[in-house]
Write a structure and sequence with these properties.
Strand 3 and strand 4 form a beta hairpin. It contains 14 helices and 18 strands. It is elongated. The protein starts with a helix and ends in a 9-residue tail after the last helix. It folds into 3 domains: about 80 residues, 2-Layer Sandwich (Alpha-Beta Plaits); about 190 residues, Gyrase A, domain 2, CATH 3.30.1360; about 160 residues, Multidrug efflux transporter AcrB transmembrane domain (Multidrug efflux transporter AcrB transmembrane fold). It is α+β, with helices and mostly antiparallel strands. Strands 5, 6, 7, 8, 9, 10, 11, 14 and 15 form a 9-stranded mixed beta sheet that branches. Helix 10 packs across helix 11. The protein is about 50% helix and about 20% strand.
Length: about 475
C-alpha cells in the first residue's frame, strides 16, 4: 500500500477526541509586559485568532480553543506531538529583515567592547583570557562563540552595552555543529528593520537550494506586491552586503545579496527537519503573535484511559442494542424483528455518516450513540401501536399499515424535530465534548427517522404487495 493510499484511509477513519485518544491540555496567558493600554485590550483576541489559524494549518482534528477571562486561553489538542505542538503555539514568529553591518563597522564596535571589558577587568592583552576577543572565533565568514562560552559573552555584551552605538544591535544565530565544534554565530545588525513579517504573503516548504546539501528542507517566502517593490529596492541598493533574516530575535540565515531581487522571493535556510520547516512555514503564514504567551497550566492526557472508555462504551452499546432487539422481538413479534433490522441499519448508517463527515468521536459522543440506540425504535413503537389499533377495529393489514404510518407520522416528526433543535443548540453553543454529543445525537435522530419511516415501511409494503402477506403478528 502506498503512502498516499494509507493517508486517504486514515482520513476516512474515526477521529478520536482528547478524552479517548489522549493529547494535551494547555492554559495560556498573554504576556502584556511592554504593551500599551490600547494594544493590551485586544491582545488576547488577536492571539487567539492567530493560534487558531496555526492549529488549523497544523492539521489537528476537532481542537478546542477558548478564551478564559480577559487574558487567558484554554486549548485542547487531541492526538498531537506535545513538544512540536507547544513550540508551534508559543512561537511569537516576529520576522524581520535586517542588514548586517559592514566589516569595518563590526571591527570598530567589537574593538570598543573589548577595550571596555579589558579596562573594567584590569586586563592588558587583547587575547588574554577573559577579554571579549578571547571568546570569539572565525568560522568561514562568521564570528562565532563556542556554546560553553555563550553565557560569558552575553554577560560582557550586557556590561559593555553603553559603548554599542544606538543604530546597531548584536544578535545571535542558531546553535550549529561543525567538525566537532558546537557554536553560535554573532552578528552586528542595523537596529532598524528593512522589512517585517507583515511583508510575507505566503510561506511554503521546499527542498534543496544548497548544492552541497540537496535534500535539506528550507522555507520559501513570497512577499506581497507592495513589499516586493520595497525588497527589490533594498537588494538593489545593497549588492554584496549580507541581509539577515531574524525570527524572534534569532538570526536564521544571513545570505549575501548577489543581485537585485525583483520578484519578492526569499528563503530561510538552516538545519531543518521537514517537520521543523513545515511548522515554521505555518507560523509565518498565520502571522506573529501580538505578544508572547506564557504556559500557566499544562496537562498531558494519556491514551490508556481513552482505550478503556472505548471498550466500555462499545460494550454498553452492544448490551443496550441486544436488550432493545430482544424486547422488540418478544413484544411485537415479527414486526419487532423488522424494527430490529432497522435498528442495525440505523447503527451502520450512523457510523458511516460519522466517518464520512470526519466527525471526532468523544466519550459523550459514545453516549450519544448509546442514546440513539435507545430512541431508534421509539418511532416504530408509535407506528406499531397505531397499526394494532387499526387491526383491532377490523381493517385489512394493508389499510392498517397505511393508516398507522400516516397517523403516527406527525407525532414522530414533531418529537424528532424538537430533539434535533435541542441537539443543534447544544452544538452551536457547546464546546469540545458537548459538541461531540450533539453531533452523534443529531445524526442519530435523522438516521432513525429515515429507518423508521422509510425502511420499515418499504419492508411492509414489499411483504404485502409482492409476497401477499395478509396477517401480521404485532
Amino acid at each position: 500500500m502506498s503512502k498516499e493510499e494509507l493517508l486517504n484511509l486514515q482520513k476516512k477513519a474515526f477521529h478520536l477526541g482528547l478524552d479517548l485518544q489522549g493529547g494535551m491540555y494547555l492554559v495560556l496567558e498573554v504576556d502584556r509586559t511592554g504593551l500599551t493600554e490600547e494594544d493590551a485590550k485586544d491582545a488576547t483576541d488577536r492571539a487567539l485568532e492567530i493560534i487558531r489559524n496555526r492549529i488549523d494549518q497544523f492539521g489537528v482534528y476537532e481542537p478546542s480553543i477558548q478564551q478564559q477571562g480577559m487574558y487567558r486561553m484554554v486549548i485542547q489538542l487531541p492526538g498531537v506531538d506535545r513538544e512540536r505542538a507547544r513550540t508551534l503555539i508559543e512561537k511569537t514568529a516576529f520576522l524581520e529583515f535586517k542588514l548586517v553591518a559592514q566589516p569595518e563597522q563590526v571591527k570598530r564596535v567589537f574593538d570598543s567592547i573589548d577595550e571596555f571589558i579589558r579596562k573594567s577587568r584590569g586586563l592588558q592583552d587583547t587575547l588574554e583570557v577573559g577579554t571579549f576577543y578571547s571568546s570569539l572565533l572565525q568560522v568561514g565568514g562568521d564570528v562565532v562563540v563556542l556554546t560553553d562560552r555563550v553565557s560569558d559573552v552575553k554577560a560582557m555584551l550586557s556590561e559593555a552595552g553603553e559603548v554599542i552605538p544606538n543604530d546597531v544591535e548584536i544578535a545571535w544565530g542558531e546553535e550549529t555543529e561543525l567538525r566537532g565544534m558546537t557554536y553560535r554565530p554573532l552578528y552586528l545588525l542595523k537596529k532598524e528593520a528593512e522589512l517585517t513579517g507583515d511583508a510575507i504573503a505566503d510561506a511554503a516548504v521546499a527542498v534543496g537550494p544548497d548544492p552541497q546539501r540537496p535534500n535539506t528542507p528550507y522555507v520559501r517566502l513570497n512577499m506581497t506586491r507592495k513589499a516586493s517593490g520595497r525588497f527589490a529596492a533594498i537588494t538593489g541598493a545593497n549588492v554584496n552586503r549580507r541581509l539577515a533574516i531574524v525570527l524572534d530575535g534569532i538570526v536564521k540565515s544571513a545570505p549575501v545579496i548577489r543581485e537585485r531581487i525583483p520578484g519578492g522571493r526569499s528563503q530561510i535556510t538552516g538545519d531543518f527537519s521537514v517537520d521543523e520547516a513545515g511548522d515554521l512555514a505555518i507560523v509565518l503564514r498565520a502571522g506573529a503573535l501580538p505578544a508572547p504567551v506564557k504556559v500557566m497550566e499544562e496537562r498531558t492526557v494519556g491514551p490508556s484511559l481513552g482505550a478503556d472508555s472505548i471498550r466500555k462504551g462499545v460494550r454498553a452499546s452492544i448490551y443496550g442494542g441486544i436488550a432493545v432487539l430482544v424486547f422488540m422481538m418478544i413484544y411485537y413479534s415479527f414486526a419487532g424483528s423488522v424494527a430490529s433490522i432497522a435498528l442495525i441499519l440505523n447503527l451502520i448508517l450512523l457510523l458511516a455518516f460519522l466517518s464520512g463527515f470526519r466527525a471526532t468521536l468523544t466519550l459523550p459522543g459514545i453516549a450519544g450513540v448509546i442514546l440513539t440506540v435507545g430512541i431508534a425504535v421509539d418511532a416504530n413503537v408509535l407506528i406499531f401501536e397505531r397499526i394494532r389499533e387499526e387491526l383491532r377495529v377490523g381493517k385489512t393489514l394493508r389499510t392498517a399499515i397505511d393508516t398507522g404510518y400516516s397517523r403516527a407520522f406527525r407525532t414522530i416528526l414533531d418529537a424528532n424535530l424538537t430533539t434535533l433543535f435541542t441537539a443543534l443548540i447544544l452544538y452551536w453553543f457547546g464546546t469540545g465534548p458537548i459538541k461531540g454529543f450533539a453531533v452523534t445525537l443529531s445524526i442519530g435522530i435523522v438516521v432513525s427517522f429515515f429507518t423508521a419511516i422509510v425502511f420499515t415501511r418499504f419492508i411492509f409494503d414489499l411483504l404485502t404487495t409482492r409476497f401477499g402477506l395478509k396477517t401480521l403478528r404485532i
